[in-house]
TrEMBL record:
<dbReference type="InterPro" id="IPR027417">
    <property type="entry name" value="P-loop_NTPase"/>
</dbReference>
<dbReference type="InterPro" id="IPR006073">
    <property type="entry name" value="GTP-bd"/>
</dbReference>
<feature type="binding site">
    <location>
        <position position="174"/>
    </location>
    <ligand>
        <name>GTP</name>
    </ligand>
</feature>
<dbReference type="InterPro" id="IPR023179">
    <property type="entry name" value="GTP-bd_ortho_bundle_sf"/>
</dbReference>
<dbReference type="Pfam" id="PF01926">
    <property type="entry name" value="MMR_HSR1"/>
</dbReference>
<dbReference type="InterPro" id="IPR016478">
    <property type="entry name" value="GTPase_MTG1"/>
</dbReference>
<protein>
    <recommendedName>
        <fullName>Ribosome biogenesis GTPase A</fullName>
    </recommendedName>
</protein>
<dbReference type="InterPro" id="IPR019991">
    <property type="entry name" value="GTP-bd_ribosome_bgen"/>
</dbReference>
<comment type="function">
    <text>Required for a late step of 50S ribosomal subunit assembly. Has GTPase activity.</text>
</comment>
<comment type="similarity">
    <text>Belongs to the TRAFAC class YlqF/YawG GTPase family. MTG1 subfamily.</text>
</comment>
<dbReference type="InterPro" id="IPR030378">
    <property type="entry name" value="G_CP_dom"/>
</dbReference>
<feature type="domain" description="CP-type G">
    <location>
        <begin position="13"/>
        <end position="178"/>
    </location>
</feature>
<dbReference type="GO" id="GO:0005737">
    <property type="term" value="C:cytoplasm"/>
</dbReference>
<keyword id="KW-0963">Cytoplasm</keyword>
<keyword id="KW-0342">GTP-binding</keyword>
<feature type="binding site">
    <location>
        <begin position="58"/>
        <end position="61"/>
    </location>
    <ligand>
        <name>GTP</name>
    </ligand>
</feature>
<dbReference type="GO" id="GO:0003924">
    <property type="term" value="F:GTPase activity"/>
</dbReference>
Amino acid sequence: MNIQWFPGHMAKTRRLIQENLKLVDVVIELLDARIPMSSRNPEIDRLVGSKPRIIALNKSDLSDPGKNSQWAQYFKNRNIDVIYTNAITGAGLNELKNKLKELTRHKTESAAAKGRIGRAVKTMVVGIPNVGKSAFINKIAGRASAQTGDRPGVTRSKQWVRINPEIQLLDTPGILWPKFEDVETGLNLAFTGAIRDEIMDTAELAAKLMERLACLYPDALMARYKLSQVHDRTGLMLLEEAGRKRGCLVSGGEVDLYRIAAIVLDEFRGGKIGKITLESPPENENTEGQP
């Protein structure tokens, strides 16, 4: 599957981020903890430049705890501040607020010395569609401030949100990039819902996901769909068996592939198959600078 998706409004978002960077002190880059590398927009490094940045690995309740530790060490080795967050429970958000104040302490102290008492830290949240950005902002603000939805690209314009008297936050629409460098990146984004299902063959996508899970988490996959085995079987074969076990049949006893595909994708995205991370940190890579 060669997946490419770059709606026109995302080009506008790229310009919006670039224009508003001068207004903020710190950038929060929100990533999907299940796909930390694939959910990193390569354009963000260029856009943000030397601006202080925190990486928040969101949806950490859905990711593999063992892989979480590996990724935390990976970013730490690169001197990047990383915090694992959960926009549903609020886990990690107090730590994030403290880190924001720590990174901007010199600015607030300088402002106070000039008589500007109570200067708020201004931050911007950037991230790909459907990474949980609006839910993240609403949780950290303690109220429904940002529009949310289960479809990628719901937030369409910038909006300032006051987190507390000390922190102001600029929300921006999700931004993907014009061309994915490899097939795996596109698939990872599609598996997690960052790309709209409507533009893809979901049966083929679910079959690819079954193949990936059969390699990475075979026991969890077999247990969830009561599969007889996963080794030496194609994703389509696994999807068909899962469809039969779930009763997703049409007249003549054929498997309704699109029905079982929708179930598999929904259950993966909801964490029902297990706590899963689809990527491991690169090995033997230069640890200087950004990943």
